[in-house]
Amino acid sequence: MFRNLVFSILIILLVAGALFITADHDFISRDEQPRISTRNEVELEFKPDLAVIVLAVETENINLEQAFKENNNKMTQVQESLSNLENIEIDTLNFQVNPRKKIVDKEQMSYYQISNRIRVTSHNLDNLSTIIKNSIESGANQVLSINYSLEDKNKAKQKVVSEAIKQIREKMEFVAKKMDRETGEIISLTINDRIIDGNNAYRMQKLAGAGEASIMTPISVPDIKVSANINAVFTLE
């Protein structure tokens, strides 16, 4: 009988403890301020105001000194042809000397190939065709790439992020209104932004007899895409 009494007391204590724990958990959930989370992504397009063109002069000769001389002369002419253009900078990217072999009349011949690459940064996109035309006509025989970007990337990012936050707040206010509540503070905000620079897959070698019409082909300038992905957590009043 004594054992039954002890067992009954233990059962009562366990049940009471379980009820106490459950009641405490419910109390916490009732007092916690309601929250709502959401995400939003915005992508805007901007007109580029900066272009980077990579040009090269390649020369070949069985005589190393002659190959150097020819390459240097042509590159000097290329840079002089661009010297009268405003808002550009010219940097040397790469200079290579490569021994080569090829078969001529069924015989192997050794020669030297010299490549001199420069980067032309233009802050005026209206002169892109002129840069390419002058360079090709004065000795450059490769246009390797044209990349477009923005002078002030931070300004573009700020505009996109501001728009994304504006849209996300409007969305939350709409949801809160449907729940007969008001939005409170932003207690968590994660922002990921990205800029996709434009580029032209551009590779051209000057061919013997190529005319100016082929050099002055209009260049299509792509827009720059800037996106922002935002995750936010709001309180509800």
What does this structure look like?
- With 237 residues, the chain is α+β, with helices and mostly antiparallel strands.
- The chain folds into two domains: 31-47 and 151-198 and 220-237, Translation Initiation Factor IF3, CATH 3.30.110; 50-149, Protein of unknown function (DUF541), domain 2 (Alpha-Beta Plaits, 2-Layer Sandwich).
- It has five helices and nine strands, in the order H-E-E-H-E-E-H-E-H-E-E-E-H-E.
- It has helices at 2-31, 64-82, 128-137, 153-178, 212-215; strands spanning 35-46, 50-61, 88-104, 107-122, 142-149, 183-196, 198-200, 204-205, 224-236.
- Strands 2, 3, 4, 5, 7 and 8 form a six-stranded antiparallel β-sheet that branches. The protein has a three-stranded antiparallel β-sheet with strand order 1-9-6, covered by helices on one side.
- Helix 2 (64-82) packs antiparallel against helix 3 (128-137).
- The radius of gyration is 34 Å and the shape is elongated.
- The two termini are 58 Å apart.
- The model is unreliable at 9-31 and 205-215 (pLDDT under 50).
Brief overview:
With 237 residues, the protein is α+β, with helices and mostly antiparallel strands. It has five helices and nine strands, in the order αββαββαβαβββαβ. Strands 2, 3, 4, 5, 7 and 8 form a six-stranded antiparallel sheet that branches. A three-stranded antiparallel sheet has the order 1-9-6, covered by helices on one side.
